[in-house]
Amino acid sequence: MIILGLTGSIGMGKSATAQLFRDEGVPVYDADAAVHELYGKGGAAVAPVEAAFPGVAVDGAIDRLRLRERVLNDAEAMKRLESIVHPLAGKAQHDFRQEAREAGAPFVVIDIPLLYETGGWQLCDYVVVVSAPADVQRERVLSRPDMTPETFVSILARQVPDAEKRARADFVISTGHGFEFARDHVRAIIALMNRKEEEARS
Questions:
Q1: Where along this sequence does the record place binding of ATP (predicted)?
Q2: Does the N-terminal or the C-terminal CB of the chain have fewer CB atoms within 10 Å?
Q3: Is residue 11 annotated as involved in ligand binding?
Q4: 147 is in an annotated binding site
């Protein structure tokens, strides 16, 4: 089974591109959704994160805005948070891959925002980077609720630059021309992955 990593900087259209793969019937692991579950009521990360950052849990779930305020510009705090969350998210991803393999999926997409930053790319056979022009990215991000230009800059500072991501990728999907344009790229990649998996089996 081929592992296809999917990543892209904030505001590039990665989540929408992941949905394009889902629309074509490809199993997609969503790292953000896994973390939401870990932070939600009864989630495995709630108690250890609250212990590390007292006051970020509200009604039995992690308040992501409070947590972001505590860790965003503090490298040490971010490292502490990642040491709690990454192993839990890693188990969720392992379980997803195992289920897909048992179901006979020829390939899966692993959607991870910080794929290069966390070393997750090393677990992938190929990497797709989703990209868009900087002005499109900025407009998308600043239209989000609770987002400020300062927060945007802080988030970008933690991410591998888009140009470097594109240089390291096996495939680049541009969302700057709209998602129907991106859908054609997704379908071409799916056809190629299915062909590669068939070749590997023969």
A1: 11-16
A2: C
A3: yes
A4: no
